[in-house]
Amino acid sequence: MYETLIKELEKKDVQLVAVSKTKPPDAIMELYQKGQRVFGENRVQECVEKHESLPKDIEWHIIGHLQKNKVKYIAPFISMIHSVDSIELLTKINNEALKNNRSIDCLLQMKIAVEDSKFGLDGASILKIIQSDAFQQLKNIRILGLMGMGSFVSDESITIKEFQALKNQFDRIKEMKIFDESFKIISMGMSGDYKLAIAEGSNMVRIGSLLFGSR
Ligand SMILES: *Cc1c(COP(=O)(O)O)cnc(C)c1O
Q1: DSSP 78-129
Q2: Which ligand 1 atom minimizes the distance to the CA of 191?
Q3: Closest ligand 1 atom, CA of 17?
Q4: How many Å lie between the centroid of ligand 1 and the Cα of residue 187?
Q5: Ligand 1 site: residues with CB under 6 angstroms?
Q6: Could you count the other beta carbons within 10 Å of the beta carbon of residue 117?
Q7: Cys bridge to 202: 32, 43, 105, 188, which one at CB 3.0-4.6 A?
């Protein structure tokens, strides 16, 4: 599975985040041996433990909702945080990055799904954050793009519209020239909808069950 998927993604210049939440270290090492280095986790504690026990050249991404009081545990090593959904969280990440004498790459999570259980910012809130004075002060974070989760619905046209909304927001921010060319990541698409997401402009997919199976 991995080899087929990675070939398909490489052809389209799409990066794979292998979502390893709840998966044991040996399952992660299996993909590591095949060359995978970017893994996604949604819980801080689990991410810290895996970072400590697994090879240090793994790039860990946090993809799940992140509480401010837990940022300090991942700040020393995290490669990317996909789930930034407030200026308060962003400020906290900045301050913890500063303490660790580093910069942390972040994506802003946009709420695109019609289901209201999903976290994330609406388009207007994203613009408000990146145009705020508070945001200008944050020198130890980099916003590299946007992340979103589509609805789990059988009607593909709904998911497609959601992905288009994220892509449009991304393009709009790009045109504002607030960021340099490092603003380039569109993180959307999971096991069930990554093909749709790529067709709508995704360049980073977060795939778990398809890779690991649902053990
Ligand atoms: C679990 C998860 C994924 C991966 O989902 P699969 O359906 O297993 O591919 C992607 N993104 C987020 C935010 C997740 O929590």
Answers
A1: --EEEEE--HHHHHHHHHHHHHTTS-EEEEEEE---SSTT---B-HHHHHHH
A2: 9
A3: 10
A4: 11
A5: 19, 21, 42, 63-64, 149, 190-192, 206-210
A6: 5
A7: 188
Parent domain of 38: 2-212
Number of structural domains in the chain: 1
The atom number, within ligand 1, closest to the CA of 147 reads 13
Residue whose Cα lies nearest atom 6 of ligand 1: it is 208
- Ligand 1 centroid to residue 190 C-alpha, Å: 6
Rounded distance between C-alpha atoms, residue 197 and residue 115, angstroms: 18
- pTM, full prediction: 0.97
The predicted pLDDT at position 114 comes to: 80
Give the Cα separation of 207 and 90 in Å (integer): 25
Query: pLDDT digit of tens for each residue in the chain (215 aa)?
Result: 899 999 999 999 999 999 999 999 999 999 999 999 999 999 999 999 999 999 999 999 999 999 999 999 999 999 999 999 999 999 999 999 999 999 999 999 999 988 766 689 999 999 999 999 999 999 999 999 999 999 988 999 999 999 999 999 999 999 999 999 999 999 999 999 999 999 999 999 999 999 997 64
We report the CATH number of the domain holding residue 164 as: 3.20.20.10
